[in-house]
Specification:
Pfam families: DAO. This protein is an alpha/beta fold. The chain is built from 7 helices and 19 strands. The structure holds flavin-adenine dinucleotide.
């Protein structure tokens, strides 16, 4: 039986429509070699003007900022709409594969920013300064110090530097924020424009993709050439995958309205990770927690208080008029009250963690209709770096699929 699609293209099914599945599907569809169908139980969409208003904030210019929640999909079923997301490398100096994927994604998002690409009238990518505050100097120089541009390293006290308390070293460089929910909606729209098809369905096993595509109007042959598995935490439950290495990594974040924030700030070291990510639409993500194997979807109020308190120390400009080093600054207690007034939502998301790292490999499963073998390329388990490495991993999966010709 031929796996040629009537247009001469082979049929590829991508399971999952998070940032990794959508990127992978788009790369394959745009290659011109494949007709791609995405099968997913969820899809991120931009909130409509008719959706429920979560918060209204009076802006300083008198206008009203209206917030509708872009992350309404059950958090344990999809990570992508909950991510910030900023490009700050999480690849170790020895992890060349992740470095490569992060570099390729950096190139892709810098092109989107350069071209002023927007979706729903808002920028998808924002270029800004990234500030990494180290509580202790890193033992070795991180690889990306040689990759990013306009890198500036300062030690506490050097040239009058005045860091938040407990910080030894500050590293500033040019980076990008990807508005993750908006980017997902954009990727889906580009995928459909390129001729891709989307089917909303919850799979109990990957082999069921065969039954699903058999019902589509795809031309003469519906034989699947390959399935790309981008189901992230779903891979733990699919009957023909059952990857017990997958586990959620809980992240609680606070979303505030603070359009004046023009940099990302990350504190490295200490008991809890803390970061500030402006999404380019007036909203800012204040994080967060990183709790492996924690399935708790409930908001922890003490965590919210700590996040607000500690991110304010890192980024005093969250509250105009609060300048801790100035004698005429408003007191911190008042600044915290003002910050709380600008809270739009508190969210809990789950990174798709995997013991052993990302699964990027081929395997074989059995199709539920033909009972014959189908090639699967797995591309899941991107934990806390799935957005900033998504384009690179999509390209890797594509390179694993295309036949090499000498
Ligand atoms: C609080 C928080 C902050 C983060 N910050 C960053 C950051 O700054 N930078 C960064 O790069 N990353 C960040 N991340 C991580 C990032 O969100 C993930 O790595 C990324 O979203 C993973 O994308 P994915 O497409 O693999 O998975 P997901 O987004 O989880 O998508 C999985 C897809 O598979 C589908 N699926 C699953 N099971 C089935 C099934 N049985 N049948 C059909 N469909 C199925 C789902 O519907 C969904 O469409 C953060 C995450 C969190 C929670």
């Amino acid at each position: 039986m031929s796996s040629q699609y009537s247009s001469g293209k082979q049929l590829v099914v991508v399971a999952g429509a998070g940032v990794v599945g959508l990127s992978t599907a788009l790369v394959m569809q745009q290659s011109g070699l494949y007709q791609v169908v995405i099968v997913s139980d969820h899809l991120v969409s931009v909130p409509a003007s008719t959706d429920k208003v979560i918060a209204r904030i009076k802006a300083s210019n008198g206008s009203e900022f209206v917030f509708r929640d872009p992350a309404t999909i059950p958090a344990l079923e999809m990570a992508s709409p909950y991510a910030g997301a900023h490009w700050r490398s999480l690849a170790t100096n020895s992890d060349v594969l992740l470095q490569q994927c992060e570099k390729e994604t950096f190139g892709r998002i810098s092109a989107l920013e350069k071209d002023n690409v927007t979706f729903d009238g808002k920028p998808i990518v924002t270029k800004l300064k990234g500030m990494d505050y180290y509580m202790q100097k890193p033992l070795e120089t991180p690889w990306y110090f040689d990759f990013v541009s306009k890198l500036k390293i300062q030690k506490e006290g050097q040239d009058g530097a005045d860091f938040p308390s407990g910080i030894e070293l500050a590293v500033e460089y040019d980076t990008f924020v990807i508005n993750s929910p908006l980017y997902c909606a954009y990727l889906h729209s580009e995928f459909i424009k390129s001729g891709g098809q989307f089917v909303k369905s919850k799979l109990s096993k990957l082999g069921d993709c065969e039954t699903i595509v058999s019902k589509l109007n795809l031309g003469s042959s519906k034989r699947i050439h390959a399935i790309i598995n981008c189901t992230a935490l779903g891979s733990k439950h699919l009957a023909d995958i059952k990857d017990n290495n997958m586990h959620p990594v809980r992240g609680q974040v606070v979303i505030v309205y603070a359009p004046q924030i023009k940099r990302t700030v990350t504190k490295l070291g200490g008991p809890a990770m803390r970061y500030v990510i402006p999404r380019g639409d007036g909203t800012v993500i204040l994080g967060g927690t990183h709790l492996p194997n924690n399935f708790d979807t409930q908001i922890d109020n003490d965590t919210t208080t700590s996040i607000l308190n500690e991110t304010l120390d890192l980024t005093p400009e969250l509250v105009p008029g609060y300048k801790p080093s100035c004698p005429n600054s408003i007191p911190k207690s008042q600044a915290l009250q003002l910050l709380r007034k600008n809270v739009l939502a508190v969210k809990v998301g789950f990174r798709p963690g995997r013991t052993g790292g990302v699964r990027l490999e081929k395997s074989i499963i059995t199709g539920s209709l033909s009972n014959s073998s189908i090639t699967v390329i797995h591309n899941y388990g991107h934990s806390g770096f799935g957005v900033q490495s998504s384009w690179g991993f999509a390209n890797m999966a594509y390179r694993m699929l295309i036949p090499y010709k000498l």
